[in-house]
């Protein structure tokens, strides 16, 4: 086999990431050597590969689904929003500057198509199949000229396209038809069919609509995937807790001890890598919720200030909402606070920022003896070490350089009383370290909480990826998908004029 497939969607968050991961896991279980790919990603959730390249976490997750090591080839262009109008452009894993949306779509994006296609071609020369994920909708006709992630790459690489629609949102049939009808004849020729996602109920009730959709579009539906709660995968963006969670508060497995632990995560602006708390949510007896009001910290046993692409903006937000004062009171009372990356910087004495916000000297919360200076070069590393008597691994993504002047050493940061700070993302995925940290939190909080000794975050993640593979294997026409990957879109697919089904 030597082929590829583009998984597009009627909208953002239609389920492209999970479907791509599910197809990768299904294929690798069939003995196919497969890799994921997304030419351009916009996300604040990113990951560092072993060679020190920054890519979207969704592509790292899909690589795990495919049981391969993630590389920059799998996500050559990553956009990290810094505001509504500008983003940091990360090219082949390294930041190359900030651009406005107009500047990017006005010329820079077109120049990147060659790089994107070269990466895809290299992957296709190495793997039996490459499963590509689109972005947003392929029918964003205002951006078609500069598209390097949807139909632009499908046309250039002659990839067949399956369009995913979220039926839970409603209007999925109109979305499928409209998506195809808005495309040019050349683009429509590559749209092989549809995949319905998040269906609840009896599939037989859906079949008349699917039959009519095929009659008016000439394209089949490759499967109807049922709604599944708690599919814990690393999404591009979206406030939720994976593995055992929902949008606002995680579902708690029964605790091993007598008490549960309550974790409040400050939902700061431009929050990045909030997936750090997924490992906490995976622990039996731990509740994780995202908060934006000071009163929501009152009953929390641990407050987490997560990473952010806007450290100074996050500081202002915490102060405006009274959360800064509430966190300071907690620290004075000896109640646990954890700052990660930008959250760690927020807890320090002061920040010198002429790079990210260009705000110059800014006073921090003063809870840790740390001074931060923003450097133009971004730190991208995969450190490992020991903390609380346990081995720990993590990854770092930051411009801020921290000078620690006191306190007790904690990973690359420090600890003062029950206030902890580190730049290390992903450290809580190390099972022994996570349990040791939670024991410290429980002691300080006065809780009779006992971490579950057998909880393996990596095993839970593998279970979730297998569930995604099962969804494809059990509810999609895998034989037809395999033919698409091997031979491309069928010839003779009809052209639909907008608004005129026939």
TrEMBL record:
Domain CobQ/CobB/MinD/ParA nucleotide binding residues, every copy:
6-238
Extract one GO BP annotation from the record. cobalamin biosynthetic process
Q: Where is the active site?
A: 341 (nucleophile), 425
Entry keyword set: Cobalamin biosynthesis, Glutamine amidotransferase
Q: In which pathway does it act?
A: Cofactor biosynthesis; adenosylcobalamin biosynthesis
Highest taxon of the lineage: Bacteria
GO MF term list: ABC-type vitamin B12 transporter activity; catalytic activity
Please give the InterPro entries that the UniProt record associates with this protein.
Class_I_gatase-like, CobQ/CobB/MinD/ParA_Nub-bd_dom, CobQ_GATase1, CobQ_N, CobQ_synth, GATase_3, P-loop_NTPase
Record-annotated CobB/CobQ-like glutamine amidotransferase domain positions: 262-431
Q: What does this protein do?
A: Catalyzes amidations at positions B, D, E, and G on adenosylcobyrinic A,C-diamide. NH(2) groups are provided by glutamine, and one molecule of ATP is hydrogenolyzed for each amidation.
User: What is stated as this protein's family in its record?
Assistant: Belongs to the CobB/CobQ family. CobQ subfamily.
PANTHER family attached to this UniProt entry: COBYRIC ACID SYNTHASE, DETHIOBIOTIN SYNTHETASE
- This protein is called Cobyric acid synthase
